Amino acid sequence: MSITVSLAGVDVPLKAPASASARWDVYSAATSNPNRAFAAALALCWDGPNKPRTRLAAHRFDALAWGGAVLDELVDRGVPLPEVIGAGLRAWQLCGEGLITGDEVKDAEGFSRGEGA
Q1: Which helix H or strand E contains 12, and what residues bound it?
Q2: Is the Cβ–Cβ distance between 37 and 27 less than 8 Å?
Q3: What per-residue confidence (pLDDT) applies to 117?
Q4: Could you tell me if 70 and 56 are in contact, meaning their C-beta atoms sit under 8 angstroms apart?
Q5: Residue among 42, 53, 55 nearest 89 (CA)
Q6: Structural domain for 87, as ranges
Q7: Contact between residue 77 and residue 54 where contact means Cβ atoms under 8 Å apart
């Protein structure tokens, strides 16, 4: 699936990346720091020109460190912070698609309550 978001008046195409591990790293990072995770997801899903220059590997595959660098870079480029976060949320949702099925969520909910023991 792909979508388009707007950053500082420019349309940016987003596409769910192929790497399940990178998607999971970025998706799960939101439990610690959503804004950094959303910025990392934005860079990970960015499928067009002017992609942020910083890369996940440059941050030792630390999604939160990478997200902070992406956030700083885009704000330095003049993209308003709320736009980065809003577009990043959409990208984060793309990252999560297919990682967890509805049945897995139901199973996890039952497990957390100690049901079936």
Answers
A1: strand 10-15
A2: yes
A3: 47
A4: no
A5: 42
A6: 21-99
A7: no
